[in-house]
Amino acid sequence: xxxxxxxxxxxxxxxxxxxxxxxxxxxxxxxxxxxxxxxxxxxxxxxxxxxxxxxxxxxxxxxxxxxxxxxxxxxxxxxxxxxxxxxxxxxxxxxxxxxxxxxxxxxxxxxxxxxxxxxxxxxxxxxxxxxxxx
Length: 134
Fold this sequence. Notes:
Layout: E1 14-16, E2 19-20, H1 21-40, H2 43-62, H3 70-82, E3 106-107, E4 112-113, H4 120-131
Antiparallel strand pairs: 1-2, 3-4
């Protein structure tokens, strides 16, 4: 049997043209705030206050930082500012789960440490290869 799998489920439905219902509500809210400011203040003070209010409402309606809504982004910022920032260090257990560092290669038969020695000519050739001269 074949089933249709819904796609684009994270895209909000468009209500009026390219606007979603959240964007329309933000624009209606902006209109209400601007109308209130117009009725309370004189014209010059209204225009001074209207510019930041308009920018704020347009940001909340349309801007999506990191793919999340601006109201969610702002709430995360508020929570970050007012939550305590405490780092707690816990003493590790006495027995570390990590293995101890090993010493240089040992020859198990002879019980002596084996050191590899390089000829200066070999080192010069390897340096040439790494530098891209060869």
